[in-house]
Amino acid sequence: MIHYSGTPTLETDRLVLRKLEGSDAQTVFDHWLSDDRVMDNLIKGAHKSVEETIKRVTEIVDQYETEEFCYWGIELKSSGDLIGAIDLFHFDPMTENCEVGYTIGYDWWNKGYGTEALSAVIEFGFRTMNIHKISAAHNTDNPASGKIMSKVGMQKEGTIKHMIRNAKNQYKDCAVYGLLQVDYFNDVK
Ligand SMILES: CC(C)(COP(=O)(O)OP(=O)(O)OC[C@H]1O[C@@H](n2cnc3c(N)ncnc32)[C@H](O)[C@@H]1OP(=O)(O)O)[C@@H](O)C(=O)NCCC(=O)NCCS
Questions:
Q1: Which of 4, 57, 78, 88 meets the CB 3.0–4.6 Å disulfide criterion with 67?
Q2: What DSSP string runs through 39-108?
Q3: How confident is the model at residue 65, as a pLDDT?
């Protein structure tokens, strides 16, 4: 059974993973949601106005009322900067599987933060929530995302042609990765 546990604060060496707050909206917009360099790698694309981000952050904050909602802002311990977000979603009660998604602001790429956040959320998903399998998919023209999946032990299962069509009306081939709880525990023991 999945042990839904809401969005508790998680800590790593350099990061605090915490709930977003309404007052984060401008930073979320400035640090990643308005940035094509970041958002072109995701389905929905960049926000054009902070009003869109306020609406999105409000939707997120409202969902913290339910224990079945796992969405963290990623904050740097050293500066207090909010640099990205990560979530677990699509919980399937039949399989007890879910998916993970993440975004780091461009200024903080390639410093290991994505890997550190993903590792903490995978640990939480398996150890606290008892998820059976965690999956993710990345556009094949976004190899950095596949790199962090590999670095936390997720295995590539295949490539799906034209799996998504993004906000710029482009079809993208996606590489699909997954990690079973049983394999995770065998590896970390
Ligand atoms: C994917 C993303 C979260 C990675 O975050 P990050 O903090 O930069 O990740 P890390 O620094 O932990 O690791 C990045 C790795 O990718 C590698 N990398 C970067 N660009 C690469 C490229 N073009 N080809 C191959 N590897 C690349 C880095 O070298 C690093 O690996 P290393 O530590 O072995 O050197 C970030 O780039 C991002 O937010 N991108 C836009 C949104 C997105 O793609 N979200 C995921 C959608 S599936």
A1: 4
A2: HTTSSS---SSHHHHHHHHHHHHHHTTSTT-EEEEEEETTT--EEEEEEEEEEETTTTEEEEEEEE-GGG
A3: 95
What is the residue extent of each domain of the chain?
10-133
189: pLDDT confidence band, cut at 50, 70 and 90? low
**Ligand 1 site residues, Cβ closer than 6 angstroms:** 38, 41-42, 102-104, 109-115, 138, 142-145, 147-148
| Ligand 1 atom 17 nearest Cα | 144
* Residue nearest atom 31 of ligand 1, based on CA coordinates: 147
Using a 10 angstrom Cβ sphere, with 0-12 exposed, 13-18 middle and 19 or more buried, the burial of residue 109 is middle
Statement: residue 178 has pLDDT above 70: yes
Q: Taking residues 117-129, report their average pLDDT.
A: 98
